[in-house]
Amino acid sequence: MKNVKNSLLAVTLSGIAAVAASQDNSKEEMPPPGAMALSTIVTKLEQQGYVPVVEVSLDGGRWEIEAYKEGKRWDLEVDPNSGEIVNAREDGS
Hints:
The chain is an alpha+beta fold and about 90 residues long. It has two helices and four strands; from the N terminus they run ααββββ. It has a four-stranded antiparallel sheet, with helices on one face. The longest helix is centred in the first third of the chain and has 27 residues, at about 1-30. It is globular and about 35 Å long.
């Protein structure tokens, strides 16, 4: 019985730790104040020929976006306030 209680306690504590860690990460990953809607940024990129957009993440206050253009995969860094591409490089992998 004691082993069952210890196991349940361990599972409960690890679950609480996982939730707390995910909440801390979500606070760090918020776009800056005044940021454009992500859907607007993706639409802008699609209008520029980046179709499809396959991955989006927020890092260092900028959107990191992976998308295809003319059959080539691109890694884009996009300013969340203006929606402008600040860095674009072809992904050679």
